[in-house]
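Side project, low priority. Logging it here so it doesn't get lost.
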Amino acid sequence: MKCEHCTRKECSKKTKTDDQENVSVDVPSPIQKNGEEEFYKLADAKIFLSDCLACESCVTMEEGVQLSQQSAKDFVRVLNLNKECDASKHRVLVVSVCPQSLPYFAAKFNLSVTDASRRLCGFLKSLGVHYVFDTTIAADFSILESQKEFVRRYHQHSEEQHTLPMLTSACPGWVRYAERVLGHPVTTHLCTTKSPQQVMGSLVKDYFARQQNLPPEKVFHVIVAPCYDKKLEALREGFCTAMNGARGTDCVLTSGEIAQIMEQSDLSIKDTAVDTLFGDLKETAIQRHDGLSSDGHLAHVFRHAAKELFGEHVEEITYRALRNKDFHEVTLEKNGKVLLHFAAAYGFRNIQNMILKLKKGKFPYHFVEVLACPRGCLNGRGQAQTEDGHTDRVLLQQMEGIYSEIPVRPPESSAHLQELYQEWLEGTESSKVQDVLHTTYQSPEPCKDNLDIKW
């Protein structure tokens, strides 16, 4: 069945109803019963039509096969292999949790965000996970590199070289749409900094693996995220860690998938503090970046640019809603002159309007934080939906309240960030920084990568 926007002859997308009727896959559970493994009833990972954020970017049959690995089935397969006597098949299981997932667990189980984090960590370790991290440190890198890139683009922008506006690249649904549908010249405006998920993959498979004296293939890395497009992001060949060729993320599970496993489990759970990449024994407080419901690229890049380019210190950022509640702008003015003009465009209605104006040369902004989901990452379709596939507005409102109460941490204040720049990346301006923290983008022309996708 084709989606209503699809113009291609072949399309493997199905409606959620079709898949629910035809797909029901048993997934091995770590719970023992009668000497054999029990099974959770969870479907294989699929991108449903109603979940798809990258309009017209069809999921082919070949990619659908790859997506089946992005499920609880593959996660539990590794858990079960670790229980076998053959130690050569054992892998160190690492789970990294996105900060936008924690409010979902807090609201779902009526806990504070700290208790929800400890409950989630305790549950994952009761399954057999060895380490549980949060991805805030990876978002620190993503934001800092985006700050530097914007300042560089600002200085380079001219009549001949159109380096602005810079469009954020942390949302995989938006990036996928830009790559596979829009292409050049839109992709030239995409920030080259990798997303927090991609950076976290490099941290776990390279930095952490070397700290543990492990080859990267011995580490199985799982991301817990609010949206389905993170599964597609994990498959992209270009997002392998630059130094060892291993895929940074082996499996992505949405917050909703993890919640299903928790609800179906009868394991005894002991609340446990989240681990750190540095082996710190002290539990770190849960913090977030200054964003409406995201990792806060707009707010942090705006403050940095104001200070770096114009010597202006910005404490509070005022968002002004324009045509709808998902399109905001932020400006820096001095003596009646607009120095910086930033915007946040959430949802594909706003994205399409933005692209139309950009192509006509009538887009006035220097920087745009682009997210595919209306109301941002908290509204990811992997956690904020009702059983019939609609947004759970009551749950989402509760999650937004929980998220807003988490203390904000500027990325520059991270205790270990500069240490990682020096020890892991050989300095803030080294060639390694470019290799590990930045990427390039594909055109919408047919690609021939290891997924063998025919677009």
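Brief comment: Residues 1-39, 47-57, 446-455 have pLDDT under 50 and may be disordered.
Revisit when time allows.
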